């Protein structure tokens, strides 16, 4: 009888821990940084290697900052930033953090230098953790670009 009670207690605690773990963002945010993010669909902008960005999260109720972490893009302009558990109810956005590493593509495009993060549905997994996507591609523009 005592063994059955212990077994039931262990099963219940496992279920509770799974529910709690699912409520936390213990994963990654991914997105892309390009030169000329306003390029027509299909053509896209050229990826920017070694671009720096930062994810910043705010509590929805108090607007207080809850999390900030820097990231850097790989050879194809993609970044992957690790998130800590417990920020699922927060608003998070990814912003360009430093000047572009490309000397001919450094102009900021208002509205194309920041994007919200969508935590509603993971787009995949990385290292057995959920992978969430930034809502849009961000980037810089070349001088004279029609990107507004």
Automatic annotation (TrEMBL):
Key word DNA-binding present: no
Endpoints of the signal sequence: 1-21
Alphabetically ordered keywords of this record: Disulfide bond, Signal
A Pfam entry, by short name: Pollen_Ole_e_1
Originating organism: Acer yangbiense
Family affiliation: Belongs to the Ole e I family.
PANTHER family membership: ALLERGEN-LIKE PROTEIN BRSN20, PROTEIN DOWNSTREAM OF FLC-RELATED
Designated name of the protein: Pollen Ole e 1 allergen and extensin family protein
